Amino acid sequence: MNNGALYYFCADEETRRFDLVGESALRGHCQQLGLERAKRQRSAHAAAGFDLNLKTLMDNWDGQLVSLVAIRAGHPD
User: What secondary structure does DSSP assign to 18-76, as a single string?
Assistant: First the structure.
């Protein structure tokens, strides 16, 4: 998927320009993104009345790393 490539090229440029400071900032931003996504998912699952456990998380995964593009039936990938 393009998400991994996009992350790689952005991270590569940030660390090339800013060395360890850039790498540290990148790690912090990734951690903040992960916490934000986890809190949003937890709130949505709690509001839906789901048990908050790993099985429920995986059965009702709504993470951002899934494709956001909807392919119409019969449309080539």
Answer: HHHHHHHHHHHHHHHHHHHHHHHHHHHHHHTT---SHHHHHHT---TTS--PPPPTT--
Q: Residue 19, by phi and psi: left (phi above 0), alpha (psi -120 to 50) or beta?
A: left
* CB 60, CB 50: distance < 8 Å: yes
Q: What is the pLDDT of residues 14-69, one digit of tens each?
A: 888 888 888 888 888 888 888 888 898 899 999 999 999 888 888 887 765 555 45
